[in-house]
Write a structure and sequence with these properties.
264 residues, alpha+beta, four-stranded antiparallel beta sheet, Multidrug efflux transporter AcrB TolC docking domain, DN and DC subdomains, 10 strands, 9 helices
Length: 264
């Protein structure tokens, strides 16, 4: 029985082979042009950093009172590749790496469980602790970066316009996230003069306590009638720099203006 010879068949049927080659080349070119493409393909980072601040604590205290407790809470998830932690004076950082085999669709649920379990132990941490803070947005990339400038505009006005632009951009189709970078919170600096405090006999603690009590926001109750409930609020909060300068500070039998003992 004669064996099939592919080379001999191809030489005998040259027209058919040529037709097949041309057809496959055209199909390949068409398929290549219609391949799925993405400028920013989705990529899931399976890492979360839990950061906690405890001002004034030593590294040993941070490790014992904060880091170890957060580590145990994260281990209860059972969905980690490894957990790595760092304890420094005043700061704890725990790095949680999810299982490499975990599907991307399940990562969001895992991050929810991490936040929930750490939140459950928040009451067991020292009261002076700030946080914990969670960061799992390592995969964010920005396609466009815009700078906002304005001659003769102060910073507050430019910030207001930047926030308006942010709202408009968030309404654009296919825009996933818009962040403002470089913002600074408005602050009022009160620089007390130690010389004036000592001369007038006003302790610094009295100034701090008076400012905190004057600008505190507390519940004051409500007044209820037959038809409505009226919320009661106490006035007196600082609304301007001038009001802050004119604020009276009382220490013993002496009363002085804040502007007399501090630069605001």
């Amino acid at each position: 029985m004669r064996r099939f010879n592919l080379s001999e068949w191809a030489l005998t049927n040259r027209a058919l082979v040529l037709y097949a080659m041309i057809a496959m080349a055209l199909i390949g070119a068409w398929s290549y042009r219609h391949l799925g493409q993405s400028e920013d393909p989705p990529f899931t980072f399976k890492i979360m950093v839990v950061r906690t601040v405890w001002p004034g604590a030593t590294a040993e205290e941070v490790s014992r009172e904060v880091t170890e407790r957060i580590e145990k809470a994260l281990m209860n998830t059972g969905e980690y590749e490894f957990i790595r932690s760092y304890s420094r004076p005043g700061e704890s950082q725990v790095i949680f790496v999810a299982r490499d085999s975990m599907p991307s669709r399940d990562v969001a649920e895992l991050w929810y469980q991490v936040r929930k379990r750490v939140g459950d132990i928040r009451a067991t941490l020292p009261s002076e602790v700030v946080g914990p803070f969670f960061n799992d947005e390592f995969g964010d990339t920005f396609g466009n970066i815009y700078a906002l400038t304005g001659k003769d505009f102060d910073y507050a006005v430019m910030k207001d316009y930047a926030e308006r632009i942010q709202l408009q951009l968030q309404r654009v189709d296919d825009v996933g996230k818009v962040d403002l970078v470089g913002l600074q919170d408005e602050k009022v600096w009160v620089e007390l003069s130690n010389t004036k405090l000592a001369t007038l006999g006003v302790p610094m603690s009295a100034v701090q306590q008076a400012l905190q009590q004057q600008n505190a926001v507390t519940g004051t109750g409500f007044f209820e009638t037959s038809g409505e409930r009226v919320q009661l609020r106490v006035t007196g909060q600082f609304t301007s720099i001038e009001a802050l300068r004119e604020f009276p500070i009382r220490a013993g039998d002496r009363t002085v203006r804040l502007g007399d003992i501090a630069q605001i």
